[in-house]
Amino acid sequence: MMKNYPLLDVRVSTPRLELRAATDDLLDQLAESVRAGKTHAEPAPYDDPMSFYETDPDLRVAKWLRAIWRRRGSVDPDAWRLYFVVMAAGRPVGEQSLTGVDFATLGTVTTFSWLSTDERGRGLGREMRSAILHLAFAGLGAKEAASDAFVDNGGSNGISRALGYEPNGFDWATRRGEPALLNRWRLTRAGWERHRRDDIQLHNVEACHALLPLA
């Protein structure tokens, strides 16, 4: 625990995993997966700029950490971001984040995640998204969640579809400097309620209400 910054004590737990706020200690553990290139997937799932495309392993870790440190420490009414390390069987296996943009006015969030290559194919990606959505809707009172993924990212698009998101058009982004088409997805509170689970627990969420500009 970090008694002087309680946002780093926020946790979400499910029967299969736990999202723990991304402390430096947990990030240091997860960095080994980043260094080993276990963030990679084919087709590449990340738009530019993305530290994971850095070929030098040590520089890749440094860029990844610096990006998290910058955004983790920036909490403003127009934008804030919560970072979590995904823990399964007591081990760090991935990253999950939640971003609010003009949340006090719009009540909308977006999510981002990655899962280590040696943990994929077991349903943990869907479990991570379910956990972060529970924090957003049940814990923070979100009205809507958005997601996007390249059209060839079957895993992410499949999770969005399974959790009740609705198609919300298309967009373009660059991926390693080349244009690529994105699917956009939208999950309303009513859509989330239809898939709401009763086995997800929120811990220390009152810190979000005290320290984030939610209203």
From TrEMBL:
<dbReference type="Pfam" id="PF13302">
    <property type="entry name" value="Acetyltransf_3"/>
</dbReference>
<dbReference type="InterPro" id="IPR000182">
    <property type="entry name" value="GNAT_dom"/>
</dbReference>
<dbReference type="GO" id="GO:0016747">
    <property type="term" value="F:acyltransferase activity, transferring groups other than amino-acyl groups"/>
</dbReference>
<keyword id="KW-0808">Transferase</keyword>
<dbReference type="InterPro" id="IPR016181">
    <property type="entry name" value="Acyl_CoA_acyltransferase"/>
</dbReference>
<feature type="domain" description="N-acetyltransferase">
    <location>
        <begin position="39"/>
        <end position="188"/>
    </location>
</feature>
<protein>
    <submittedName>
        <fullName>Acetyltransferase</fullName>
    </submittedName>
</protein>
